[in-house]
Specification:
Layout lengths: L2 H27 L4 H16 L3 E7 L4 E9 L11 E3 L5 H8 L3 E3 L8 H8 L4 E9 L2 E10 L9 H49 L1 H18 L4 H29 L2 H6 L1 H11 L4 E3 L9 H22 L4 E8 L2 E8 L11 H12 L3 E5 L7 E7 L16 E3 L1
Parallel strand pairs: 7-8, 10-12
Antiparallel strand pairs: 1-2, 1-6, 2-3, 4-5, 5-6, 8-9, 9-11, 10-11
Helix pairs in contact: 1-2, 1-5, 2-5, 5-11, 6-7, 9-10, 10-11
Length: 401
């Protein structure tokens, strides 16, 4: 074969592959169900490579893998969708799981293990595969198999990897939507729970004080004509009860949305929060200008929750707080010198903090190595048009270090 003819054939193959990738990308954009997507990707890959069959697997936590998509040419060997296979030995499935990189087996002859035996029984003699990752973690793999040894060219891993990247994008989009839906559900539930808490606090606090004041005033009126001194004592008691009730209401109002934040902005609100903190707070850079109200509120409550956690759990001597504006983002940073070990995946406080940030298209990062304190960083989009739901790969809502 002449070099010109070889170049022409390679160009034609590349055009066929690019057309297949565009079709898969268009399908991904249409948000199909996973079974349709997986089977279509396997089919497009199989036809591009001209192989006997292709399949897609998902790695499970019990040491097995499940076939989630498949395609086979007429008479080609293939495992049915739903088949569970062990992840063992030197099969491509196991090698991918261990390395997280594209792998191949050119000849299954002599390879031991249950899966290798099943592959040979199905007529599979060689295979090449590439990993599928979501949020930086191995999710599964897509593989091409052949009925003859050494059935694949040297660049097959790279070609399969391009299809795997499209599957990764589709899974990341689906995961982001699920995370956003779960976050919104938690925000709604948190709203209900907050209202229930306010009802309890009002009933057990300010309401009881006001009821007591009303009773004292009624008794004072009854005693006023024949026992002025006793009536005056009751009036004094009512006054104290009213004062206590007002204090309770102010505390409740501060927890809901401090008036200083509305009237004067984030900087004065954080300065006031620092003076009330149970642990010493060192304020770093804070914005002089007003930010959008929803951004100021989110930043304030991130700091408030972080200070509460530091006081309760960190055993720290001081906390550093700073807020800066960086290229369309408000960046909130809170760092303590405590014991560390905060779990980003546990606790309603951290989860609620992440939900608030994610609702504004941002992300929350937590680094809390044992013995090295805890650092919380929240990035909040300043403009509404930038508040797209983040994917868990590039813009994961919560990360722990």
């Amino acid at each position: 074969m002449s070099s010109v003819q070889h170049s022409v054939e390679r160009l034609e193959a590349l055009l066929v592959e690019q057309s297949a990738l565009r079709r898969v990308a268009t399908l991904v954009a249409a948000d199909p169900d996973q079974r349709t997507l997986f089977d279509r990707v396997c089919e497009e890959l199989g036809r591009v490579l001209g192989v006997d069959s292709t399949d897609m697997i998902r790695y499970e936590q019990n040491g097995t893998a499940t076939v989630v998509g498949a395609w086979a040419a007429s008479g080609g060997p293939s495992f049915p969708v739903g088949t569970s296979v062990p992840v063992e030995g030197d099969t491509v499935t196991a090698k991918l799981y261990r390395s997280g990189r594209p792998e191949r087996v050119d000849d299954y002859t002599g390879i031991g293990g249950e899966l290798a035996e099943r592959l040979r029984a199905f007529g599979i003699r060689s295979a090449v595969g590439a990993p599928i990752k979501v949020a930086g973690r191995l999710w599964g793999a897509i593989m091409a198999v052949g009925g003859e040894p050494y059935a694949f060219a040297a660049d097959t891993e790279e070609r399969i990897a391009r299809f795997a990247e499209l599957v990764t994008a589709a899974l990341a989009n689906a995961d982001a939507r699920e995370q956003l839906a779960a976050s919104r559900a938690r925000i709604v539930e948190a709203g209900y729970e907050e209202r229930r808490r306010l009802e309890r606090d009002l009933h057990d606090g300010a309401q009881q004080e006001f009821v007591g004041a009303a009773i004292s005033l009624r008794l004072a009126r009854e005693k006023w004509s024949h026992s002025p001194e006793a009536a005056l004592e009751l009036v004094d008691a009512a006054f104290e009860q009213l004062q206590a009730g007002l204090r309770d209401l102010r505390e409740l109002a501060t927890g809901i949305h401090p008036s200083i934040l509305t009237d004067r902005g984030l900087r004065p609100a954080l300065e006031a929060l620092a003076t009330r903190s149970a642990v010493p707070v060192e304020l770093g850079p804070l914005p002089q200008e007003r930010l959008p109200p929803e951004v100021e509120a989110t930043a304030y409550f991130v700091v408030a929750e972080a200070l509460t956690n530091a006081a309760k759990h960190a055993q720290c001597e001081r906390v550093e707080v700073g807020v800066r504006v960086d290229d369309g983002w408000a960046v909130v940073e809170v760092r303590d010198d405590g014991v560390g070990g905060a779990d980003a995946s546990a606790g309603s406080g951290l989860r609620g903090m992440a939900d608030r940030v994610m609702a504004l298209g941002g992300r929350l990062d937590i680094e809390s190595a044992p013995g090295k304190g805890t650092a919380i960083s929240a990035r909040i989009a300043l403009r509404a048009r930038d508040r797209r739901p983040p994917g868990r790969d590039a813009d994961r809502p919560v990360t722990g270090g």
